[in-house]
């Protein structure tokens, strides 16, 4: 069994985000029913047998206290570029939910050196048994607003990114 730490999960998230912008040619399809292959990546051309991470997301400056705070902490989910939805398609930014680490945004404009460009960690919501926020899912709408939900009792946050690096 492989153990995935926040750092290895972040590397996988980065590889996923970068591969969307650098998609490989579509392989042949052997069989399908009501589905069409529209995108494929060999992880930067290295092949599925020898994936090569481009970079690892930098560790959060507040990582140690977040690990000790209670509940879960680490990379969980990223805002997906779902075509056809009222969604902002992000090509140079990854926005993710990190449980007790809240919502975090990273610039991947330089895929070999990602940089954290913003984060928001809510205070512990009343009644949450973990005594921490537990951000589960994130979504970025076409206006750039970030929607994030707590998996237990924190409800739904609507967040406006105010950093100087574009959320694009």
Explain what you see.
The chain has 168 residues and is an alpha+beta fold. Helix content is 13%, strand content 24%. It has two helices and seven strands, in the order ααβββββββ. The chain has helices at residues 6-21, 63-68, and strands spanning 73-78, 93-99, 103-107, 115-120, 135-140, 145-150, 156-160. It has a four-stranded antiparallel β-sheet, with helices on one face. A three-stranded antiparallel β-sheet has the order 5-6-7, with no helix packed on it. β5 (135-140) and β6 form a beta hairpin.
Give the low-confidence spans: 1-22
Looking at the structure, what is the overall shape? Answer: globular
Q: Please, how many helices?
A: 2
Question: Can you count the beta strands?
Answer: 7
Q: What is the C-alpha radius of gyration, as a whole number of Å? A: 17 Å
What is the topology, as strand order, of the major beta sheet? 1-2-3-4
What structural class results from the helix and strand content?
alpha+beta
Q: Give the strand content.
A: 15-25%
Question: Helices and strands, in N-to-C order?
Answer: HHEEEEEEE
Which helices and strands, and how do they pair?
Blueprint (H helix, E strand, L loop, with lengths): L5 H16 L41 H6 L4 E6 L14 E7 L3 E5 L7 E6 L14 E6 L4 E6 L5 E5 L8
Antiparallel strand pairs: 1-2, 2-3, 3-4, 5-6, 6-7
């Amino acid at each position: 069994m492989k153990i995935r730490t926040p750092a290895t999960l972040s590397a996988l998230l980065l590889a996923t985000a970068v591969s969307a912008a650098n998609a490989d040619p579509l392989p042949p399809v052997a069989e399908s029913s009501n589905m069409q292959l529209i995108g494929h990546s060999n992880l930067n051309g290295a092949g599925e047998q020898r994936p090569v991470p481009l970079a690892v997301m930098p560790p959060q400056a507040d990582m140690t206290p977040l690990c000790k705070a209670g509940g879960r902490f680490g990379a969980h989910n990223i805002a997906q570029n779902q075509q056809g939805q009222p969604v902002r398609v992000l090509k140079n930014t990854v926005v993710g939910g990190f449980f007790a680490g809240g919502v975090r945004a990273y610039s991947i404009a330089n895929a070999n050196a990602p940089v954290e460009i913003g984060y928001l960690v809510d205070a512990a919501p009343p009644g949450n048994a973990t005594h921490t926020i537990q951000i589960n899912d994130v979504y970025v709408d076409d206006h750039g607003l970030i929607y994030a939900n707590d998996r237990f009792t924190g409800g739904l946050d609507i967040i406006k990114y105010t950093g100087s690096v574009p959320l694009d």
